[in-house]
Amino acid sequence: MENISFRTIVLPLGDRLYRLALRITMNRAEAEDVVQDTLLKVWECRSEWEQIGNLEAFAMTICRNRAIDITKRVGRNAASLDVVDNRRQTTDNGQQSLEAHEQLSLVRRLMDNLPEVQRTIMLLRDVEGRSYQEIAQVLGISEIQVKVYLHRARTKVKNGVKD
Question: Of 70, 77, 139, 148, which sits most exposed with the smallest number of CB within 10 A?
Fold first, then answer.
């Protein structure tokens, strides 16, 4: 990596880091603190950027670990992320809109109840669109294990929706 710029490479990761931290901490203020801590830690490691193969995966790993530390220290907040999605749905049929909103809320609750690793993998793969390799790098596990955890998470959510 030649000529890495904090402003052009690292700062744009802020939104992704925030979404990851928010899904883990389930608290906006804590997620913002995690992102700040992450960006500071990445900045402090700037002399090592050339040796880091994937700076984004490095930042995501720091963010995930910091968010998990805060969650363990403070205890899991029971707040739901349903309040994060305040978008108005414009549908001709109000009943369809209500059913879609309830379905989305159910999926979010089911995801919130998944084990930490499964929830993180599902977020990174299905919401963020990350590759198996990137997820494995962030979590420090093999790609095969990522696929296993993802399959288990999707199965749990799918079975929860059917019930």
Answer: 77
